[in-house]
């Protein structure tokens, strides 16, 4: 039986931290589905199609699939035939939100397990929001994102 994990998020845009977690997930999942949320809380910088294309460009692995999802994450997970949700924990500050979300998802779908992974130490400070902010003001994000993402950010913020 193949073990399928869903790695959900906004990915606005994908960072080296996300890429690291996708790679780590493949240590225990046969397939990883990157679930890109259609409805994100704030107005995203990148459109859904752009976010998906950037993930596909940054992660090229036959066991990794990128799909959009709308509505409840657990419905997407069940529909995809997955049994696990992967989320990253970078710092203690992530914990409260992640804990609430994991327990809510468990209430909604008791058979789905949430697995938390820590990124590589040198990637723990990276977040999409910080990447957007640094790029917006012309800072160098080359160590934080795939070159194609860096170029996409430069195009977005070109003056
Ligand atoms: O990268 P993010 O923004 O932290 O990802 C959050 C995301 C998209 C995984 C979360 O908001 C989500 O699962 N949204 C789908 C709606 C849903 O199922 N909400 C209840 C979860 S408790």
- Poorly predicted runs: none
Please tally the helical runs, counting DSSP H or I stretches of 4 or more residues.
6
CA radius of gyration is 15 Å
**SSE sequence, one letter per element:** EHEHEHEHEHH
First-last Cα distance: 52 Å
Overall average residue pLDDT = 96
The set of bound ligands, ions and cofactors reads: 4'-phosphopantetheine
- For the report, how would you describe the main beta sheet? 5 strands, parallel
**Anisotropy-based shape:** globular
* Number of strand segments: 5
Strand order of the largest sheet: 3-2-1-4-5
- What is the strand content? 15-25%
Percent helix range: 40-55%
Coarse structural class: alpha/beta
Describe the model.
The protein is an alpha/beta fold and 159 residues long. The protein is built from six helices and five strands, in the order E-H-E-H-E-H-E-H-E-H-H. It has helices spanning 16-25, 48-58, 73-79, 92-108, 128-136, 147-156, and strands at 4-9, 31-37, 64-69, 84-88, 113-117. A five-stranded parallel β-sheet has the order 3-2-1-4-5, sandwiched between helices. Helix 1 (16-25) links the parallel strand 1 (4-9) and strand 2. The longest helix is centred in the middle third of the chain and has 17 residues, at 92-108. It is globular, with a radius of gyration of 15 Å. It starts with a strand and ends with a helix. The mean pLDDT is 96. Bound molecules: 4'-phosphopantetheine. 4'-phosphopantetheine is lined by residues 8-10, 37, 40, 72-73, 101, 104-105.
């Amino acid at each position: 039986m193949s073990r399928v994990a869903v790695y959900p998020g906004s990915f606005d845009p994908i960072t080296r931290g996300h890429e690291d977690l996708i790679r780590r997930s493949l240590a225990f999942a046969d397939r990883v589905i990157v679930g890109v949320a259609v409805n994100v809380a704030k107005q995203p910088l990148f459109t859904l199609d752009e976010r998906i294309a950037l993930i596909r460009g940054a992660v090229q692995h036959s066991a990794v699939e990128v799909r959009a999802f709308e509505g409840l994450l657990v419905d997407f997970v069940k529909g995809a035939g997955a049994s696990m949700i992967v989320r990253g924990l970078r710092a203690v500050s992530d914990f409260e939100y992640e804990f609430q979300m994991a327990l809510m998802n468990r209430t909604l779908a008791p058979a789905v397990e949430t697995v938390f992974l820590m990124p590589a130490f040198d990637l723990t400070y990276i977040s999409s929001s910080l990447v957007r902010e640094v790029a917006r003001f012309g800072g160098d994000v080359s160590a934080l994102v795939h070159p194609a993402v860096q170029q996409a950010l430069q195009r977005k913020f070109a003056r």
